[in-house]
Amino acid sequence: MVSLSDYLILSSVIFCIGLVGIFVNRTNIITLLMCVELILVAVNTNFVAFSHFLGNEVGQIFVFFILTVAAAEVAIGLAILTLLFRNRGSISVDVTNSLKG
User: Fold this and answer.
1) Which of 17, 38, 61, 89 has the fewest CB atoms within 10 Å, measured from its CB?
2) In terms of residue numbers, what domain contains 86?
3) What is the pTM of this model?
C-alpha cells in the first residue's frame, strides 16, 4: 500500500527538479516552460494525494482547474515562441529582453 508520505516525497522530488531546472538553465525558453510544468505536476500530485487520503473530491476539482490553466499557458507560450523564432531566428532568453509592449 502506498502511503501519503510516499506521494509527498515524489511530489517534492518533482518540485525540486523543476526549481533546479529553472535556476540552472536560464537560456532556453522551452526548458523553462517544461520546468514550470513540472512544478505544476508536483502541485497536482499533492492535491490528488491529499484528496484521496482525506476522502473528499475538492483537491481533484482543483487539479482540473490547474490543468486548464496549464494548457492555456502552454498554448500561448508556444505561440509566442513560434512567432519569436520566426522573427528573430532564436528562442534564447536574451532575445526576449528586447520585446516591445
Assistant:
1) 89
2) 26-90
3) 0.84
| Grid cell in block for residue 23 | 535556476
Residues in the chain: 101
The answer to whether position 11 is within a domain reads no
Distance separating alpha carbons of residues 52 and 90, to the nearest angstrom:
44
CA 21 to chain centre: 11
- Cβ-proximal residues to 12 (8 Å cutoff; 6+ apart), any chain: 42
Structural domain count of the chain: 1
Considering the domain boundaries, does residue 7 fall inside one?
no
Decide if 71 is inside a domain. yes
Tens digit of pLDDT for each residue in 84-100? 888 888 777 776 766 66
pLDDT digits (tens, 9 = 90+) for 15-70: 999 999 999 988 888 888 899 999 999 999 999 999 999 999 999 999 999 999 99
